[in-house]
Amino acid sequence: MTLVIVLLCIAGLVILISACKINAFLSFLIISVIAGIALGVPAAQIPKSIEKGIGDTLGGLVIILCLGAMLGKLLAESGAAHKLADALMHAFGPKYIQWAMVVTGFVIGIPLFYGVGFVLVIPLIFSIAYQYKMPVIYIGLPMLAALSVTHGFLPPHPSPSALVMQFKASMGLTLLYGMAVAIPAIIIAGPLFTRTLKNLEVHPLQIFEPTKAAVEKTPGTATSFFTALLPVLLLMLTTLYPYIDNHHLPFQSTVALIGQPSVVMIISIIYATYSLGLKTGRGMAEIMTIYEDAVKDIAMIVLIIGASGALKQILTDSGASAQIAGMLQHVDLPPLVLGWLMATIIRVCIGSATVAGLTTAGLIAPLMLQTHTDPNLMVLAVGAGSLMFSHVNDSGFWMFKEYFNISVKDTLRSWSVMETLVGTVGIVGVLILNQFVK
Predict the structure, then answer these.
(1) Widest distance between CA atoms in the chain
(2) DSSP assignment of 191-242, as one string?
(3) 32, 12 Cβ separation under 8 angstroms
(4) 10-14, 68-72, 91-95, 377-381: which is most confident
(5) Rounded to an integer, what distance in angstroms lies between the CA atom of residue 146 and that of residue 421?
(6) What is the pLDDT of residues 154-183, one digit of tens each?
(7) Over residues 183-195, mean pLDDT
(8) How far apart are CA 126 and CA 76, in angstroms?
């Protein structure tokens, strides 16, 4: 019965947004209340769950989203994004620009939380699309496929790293196997799949469109690259620092502070204010106006993402995820397939890849030990399942829809199918690997 209620709530959400044309933020709040009542959450607890869900989702993400929008807007207004687009196009040419985006997304995605990586690559995607009159989905989806793959498969990304610890797997072997699975997943879900989306109607947000003034006084190419990639560099350095062979490293607490995504973005925006703003002759008042406009442009995106967290929290507090996973424990399937299926169903019902992965890990671990399943492959199987079919209860779905400004139907057709391809190719790759590493 729990599964039926969850599926009905998801269907109701789609109907409110698509058929009734109700704002997604309001639709999430309405469905969250209905889901809470239907799933037996105490009436007094429902508002608290909604508030907690919004707060937990936006707690760290709102800083990243807002500062990322500011950085992206300044990259566009200063002409730095124009420089980045020119450099990539010159290096790879229009014929291979998709592969350039894939490689960039892959490199950026390994050290970054998914939300941070998404926000940072959007200005680059839009700049190339605007400047060279190329379809934004053609440019953007392969890059986002690479981000998704790193999010689900590759340590030291936080989600697979947590699974490595839970399953007592090897970080090195998981990374090695993950690379073998990741490459075909990216190729199929990225460059190959986008060929089927040529006629998709997209009206991307104007927030990152360069203005005429942007090309009058632009920063250099080196400055543009360094400023745009500073968040990535900081996170990579702070991630690698603890692995240096020295037990008495100085400044560990400082490095830990700097390595927090929100602090990284604060440092990056301070530097960008100087390198792309003050250094190019813009006054502080003009720069702050750019930042204010950027936040106004994404205000509704922030609200929608927060509201998606409200529904996720209601489903979690009601015990829906645990009940659904418990039902699946008795399914007679090979452990790797069962781990993937459990993560998939929890992901579809709850929306969060991280929650799906960690919930599955706690339930599948005893079975994995009994059957002597390779823990490194189980990390990848669960990671693949946790990426399956992102839809209306996933914050990533709404980030893609709102930034690319397309309909729910077309978001399902593009983003959701891409994520499903990543998860499907992932489990197929894991099962093939399992034949060779037994």
Answers:
(1) 67
(2) IIHHGGGTT------GGGPPPGGGGTS---HHHHHHHHHHHHHHHHHHHHGG
(3) no
(4) 377-381
(5) 12
(6) 876 667 877 887 788 887 788 889 989 999
(7) 94
(8) 9
Q: Which residues contact 160 (CB under 8 A, 6 or more apart)?
A: 152, 153, 154, 174, 178, 379, 380, 383
The tens digit of pLDDT for each residue in 109-143 reads 766 667 777 887 888 888 888 878 888 999 899 99
| Dist CA 313 CA 428 (whole Å) | 31
Q: What is the DSSP string of 245-282?
A: S-TT-TTHHHHHHHTSHHHHHHHHHHHHIIIIIGGGT-
Provide the whole-model pTM: 0.74
Label residue 72 left, alpha or beta by phi (over 0 means left) and psi (-120 to 50 means alpha): alpha
**For residue 107, how many other CB atoms are within 10 A of its CB?**
15
Domain boundaries, the chain: 2-437
Q: Would you say how long the chain is, in residues?
A: 438
How would you write 34-84 as a 3-class SS string?
HHHHHCCCCCCHHHHHHHHHHHHHHHHHHHHHHHHHHHHHHHHHHCHHHHH
How far apart are the C-alpha atoms of 394 and 116, rounded to whole Å?
16
Q: What are phi and psi of 259, to 5 degrees?
A: -75, -5
In the predicted model, is pLDDT for residue 215 greater than 50? Answer: no
Q: How far apart are CA 8 and CA 15, in angstroms?
A: 10
Least confident of 173-182, 205-214, 388-397: 205-214
Long-range contacts of 271-274 (CB under 8 A, 24+ apart): 271/227, 271/230, 272/71, 272/74, 272/75, 272/227, 272/230, 273/74
Question: What six digits make up the tokens of 300?
Answer: 């509704």
Residue 216 CA, chain-centre distance (Å), reads 34
Which runs of consecutive H residues, i.e. helices, occur in 243-387?
A: 252-258, 261-272, 284-317, 320-328, 335-350, 353-371, 375-386
